[in-house]
């Protein structure tokens, strides 16, 4: 199926071994170093870039017995939410090849959904694990910031960069998270949350079909629903953009100056935005983030977790469009939790009533409280079978 989906950039011929992930086929987003061949970041600039060593996260998975079988497509330099701006060509959604898989870890979401791999690594700065997980109908984790090492991962913005796993089940995502963080703890028992906080100010522009599926998922949990408002939450997108674009312009300054034509046009537009962001503006965004983190933490004090849709719209078709407008709408519900230090789990909860495309929710918990999310996700997947559904041609 990958000939149609284009999730794989490079096939890797490595054996697995014994360990907690024995027999698990893994794909690695191609901005995470996998020795033995190019790690391209889906960019013409890095077509011949061959790392000497595996990234630490790849080494940990391999040491746990997983078999690395592929490097996976992404938006160039992990910049974008559609995965159409890739030197390897656009990645497609296995549920409907005319639609995007989400981004920037689009190949990771698509490869898991298509059954090409059992487990994939993605990176998540502004939503780049969670958006593909939702669009492709799989589970994805943005872990607590700093809990998973970034050695050997090409950066976007250190303040918010993370590496997270994607799989069809919460169980496999949780097992992978244990390996990635070096934890030997067992998995939590499945447990429904008792109180779910709903950040109501984020739900004013959600597609009705998406909202209906999300409401049904909330009903499955059977928890007390607590409307919450977090001051400044609607500023999250601008804060993320300021931090990310400022850093992208710095990281890619030499490439912007010497050969801008080698970037995909969409990438060039986004990366170029950061050249006008001043040091004072970036410092102000850092302070705004700290204040918002405190308010998010306070909102979590009275509930077990926060819940929102992951995508506010149905999965879009891959028609050419203004990249900034598309990305701003698609990522509007993921950016707030990128500024939170704690984890967010993207969970598939059904299909859009009009198109049959996957719909997902995000569950967000306090810092280092991944097990709260895993317990809820494990319980939900015991009650439902959405995670067992497969794309028609998978």
Question: TL;DR of this structure?
Answer:
This protein has 394 residues and is an alpha/beta fold. The protein has helices at 2-5, 56-63, 106-114, 130-136, 170-181, 208-221, 236-251, 253-258, 265-272, 279-300, 323-330, 335-339, 370-383; strands at 8-11, 25-29, 67-72, 119-124, 139-142, 162-167, 195-199, 224-228, 305-309, 344-351, 358-364.
Description:
The chain has one domain: Amidase signature (AS) enzymes (Alpha-Beta Complex), CATH 3.90.1300.10. Helix content is 34%, strand content 15%. It has helices at 2-5, 56-63, 106-114, 130-136, 170-181, 208-221, 236-251, 253-258, 265-272, 279-300, 323-330, 335-339, 370-383; strands spanning 8-11, 25-29, 67-72, 119-124, 139-142, 162-167, 195-199, 224-228, 305-309, 344-351, 358-364. An 11-stranded mixed beta sheet has the order 1-3-2-4-6-5-10-11-9-7-8, with helices on both faces. Helix 7 crosses helix 10. Residues 19-371 form the Amidase domain.
- β-strand percent reads 15-25%
Could you say which overall geometry the principal axes of the C-alpha atoms support? globular
| Count of helical regions | 13
| CATH topology (level 3) name | Amidase signature (AS) enzymes
Which terms summarize this structure?
394 residues, eleven-stranded mixed β-sheet, globular, Aspartyl-tRNA(Asn)/glutamyl-tRNA(Gln) amidotransferase subunit A
Summarize the SSE layout with pairings.
Layout: H1 2-5, E1 8-11, E2 25-29, H2 56-63, E3 67-72, H3 106-114, E4 119-124, H4 130-136, E5 139-142, E6 162-167, H5 170-181, E7 195-199, H6 208-221, E8 224-228, H7 236-251, H8 253-258, H9 265-272, H10 279-300, E9 305-309, H11 323-330, H12 335-339, E10 344-351, E11 358-364, H13 370-383
Parallel strand pairs: 2-3, 2-4, 7-8, 7-9
Antiparallel strand pairs: 1-3, 4-6, 5-6, 5-10, 9-11, 10-11
């Amino acid at each position: 199926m990958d000939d149609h989906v284009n999730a794989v950039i490079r096939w890797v011929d490595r054996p697995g071994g014994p360990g907690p992930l024995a027999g698990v086929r893994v794909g690695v987003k191609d901005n995470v170093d996998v020795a033995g061949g190019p790690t391209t970041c889906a960019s013409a600039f890095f077509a011949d870039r061959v790392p000497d060593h595996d990234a630490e996260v790849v080494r940990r998975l391999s040491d746990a017995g997983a078999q690395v079988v592929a490097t996976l497509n992404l938006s160039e330099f992990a910049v974008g939410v559609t995965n159409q701006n890739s030197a390897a060509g656009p990645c497609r959604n296995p549920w409907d090849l005319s639609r995007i898989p989400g981004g920037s870890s689009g190949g990771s979401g698509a490869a898991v959904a298509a059954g090409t791999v059992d487990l994939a690594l993605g990176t998540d700065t502004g939503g780049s694990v969670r958006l593909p997980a939702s669009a492709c109908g799989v589970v994805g984790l943005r872990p607590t910031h700093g809990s998973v090492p970034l050695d050997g991962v090409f950066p976007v913005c250190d303040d918010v960069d993370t590496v997270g796993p994607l799989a069809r089940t919460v169980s496999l995502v949780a097992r992978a998270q244990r390996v990635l963080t070096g934890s030997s703890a067992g998995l939590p028992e499945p447990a429904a949350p008792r109180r779910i906080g709903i950040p109501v100010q984020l739900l004013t522009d959600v597609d009705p079909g998406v909202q209906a599926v999300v409401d049904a998922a909330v009903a499955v949990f059977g928890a007390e629903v607590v409307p919450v408002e977090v001051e400044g939450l609607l500023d999250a997108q601008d804060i993320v953009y300021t931090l990310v674009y400022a850093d992208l312009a710095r990281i890619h300054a030499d490439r912007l100056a010497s050969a801008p034509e080698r970037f995909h046009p969409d990438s060039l537009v986004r990366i170029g935005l950061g050249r006008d962001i001043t040091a004072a503006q970036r410092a102000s965004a850092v302070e705004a983030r700290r204040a918002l983190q405190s308010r998010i933490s306070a909102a979590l004090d009275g509930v077990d977790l926060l819940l929102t849709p992951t995508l506010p719209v149905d999965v879009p078709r891959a028609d050419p469009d203004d990249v900034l407008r598309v990305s701003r709408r698609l990522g509007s519900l993921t950016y707030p939790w990128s500024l939170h230090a704690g984890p967010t789990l993207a969970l598939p909860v059904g299909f859009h009533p009009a198109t049959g495309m996957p719909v997902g929710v995000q569950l967000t918990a306090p810092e280092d409280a991944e097990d709260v999310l895993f317990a809820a996700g494990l319980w939900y997947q015991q009650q439902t079978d959405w995670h067992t559904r497969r794309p028609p041609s998978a």
